[in-house]
Amino acid sequence: KGEYYYRSGSTNQFLKGAALDRFLLHKHGRTWDGTPLPGVTLADLDAGALKTFRRRAQKSQRLPDNVLDESDQALLEKLHLVEGRYLTHAAVLLFHPEPTRFFTGSYVKIGYFENNVDLRYQDEVAGTLITQVSRTIEILKAKYLKAWITYDGLQRIETWPLPMPALREAVLNAVVHKDYTCGTPIQISVYPDKLMIWNPGELPLDWTVEKLLGKHASIPFNPDIANVFFRSGMIEAWGRGIERIIESCKEAGTPEPEVKYEQTGLWLVFPFRVRQTVAEAEIPQETTPETTQEKILVLLSAQPTITRKELAARIGLSADGVKYHMEKMKSAGLIRHVGPTKAGHWEILK
CA-CA distances (angstroms) from residue 206 to 52, 94, 212? Predict the structure, then answer.
């Protein structure tokens, strides 16, 4: 009595917790991300994130111009992000500057590991979902992955340890399909020879990894969140995320990712190119000042009190190499150091 089961093949599966909540919502034609969240108003949302969405949606042409010209309130209503007098879970996750105040695991955690127990450094990417994807990719490229630099005449060519379109699609899929009732964040673990993405969530009922890898209909875990990402031009609406990832790897000549499904979530494991591991992909310092300085700027922006020694460890340069680039950046008016040498902080000027 009071217990719920669903039929899966020849067995009955017991439903409880968040899975039961989603099942009951689905029986009434509702979804978790479409559920109202009292106590949050339009004024609490990030105006910059809404502008970012409008700009992307205008470029993708997946919303009429007259809708994009309407007020923020009207736009959210057209996107089905308002329920009665309240914003929905999806609206808060997508556009609130601090969604973790309401949903504990609504961020991305990144770590660099030498092996399964030796964590070297880590980052967290929080904020609006609409901006989490691009910021996650930026940090991965700046701090965790190293490109193999070659030249075709005067043209510089960067070859990453895995295809960037595949990585972007994988991060997008993780953010869009995450189970946000779970308090655990998306986790990206980078090793010398691979990158692993773990996404807390569940496959649709009766789905297997084999079905996920094959041709299948689009059944988003969070349909309202997926709709906003679709309207912004960031994803397709045909359930081709995994297929696009595999296609990108084939086109780039890199190994296909391994997909593993556990009861608590989905693993996507990208082996790096054989000729280029993170440890081996040393960028010639004299030919890449712009890339190195961009990485320094990203790190200074994220952690203004960071030391040169810490910068050297994260970028993969010597301390003298970091000092050389930072002196050039100071001379160019890009950065300055404020306060005492050991207790001050860095400011980005341009």
Answer: 37, 29, 11
3-class SS of residue 55: helix
Closest CA to 191 of 167, 161, 149, 163: 161
C-alpha torsion angle, residues 35, 40, 41, 43 (rounded to 10): -140
pLDDT under 50: residue ranges of the chain: 1, 8-10, 14, 24, 28, 276-290
41-53: burial string, b at 16+ Cβ within 10 Å, e else: eeeebbeebbebb
> What's the predicted TM-score (pTM) here?
0.72
pLDDT of 285-338, one tens digit each?
Answer: 333 444 678 888 888 887 888 888 888 877 777 777 788 888 888 988 889 888
Architecture of domain 108-271: 2-Layer Sandwich (3.30)
pLDDT in tens, 98-122: 999 999 999 999 999 998 888 999 9
Q: Where are the domains of the chain?
A: 14-99, 108-271, 285-348
Cα atoms found within 13 Å of the Cα of residue 87, Cβ hemisphere only: 23
What one-character-per-residue DSSP string does 252-281 give? HT-PPPEEEEETTEEEEEEEPPTT--TTT-
Q: Which of 161, 146, 184 is nearest to 254 (CA)?
A: 161
Same fold yes or no, 108-271 and 285-348: no
Which CATH code for domain 285-348?
A: 1.10.10.10
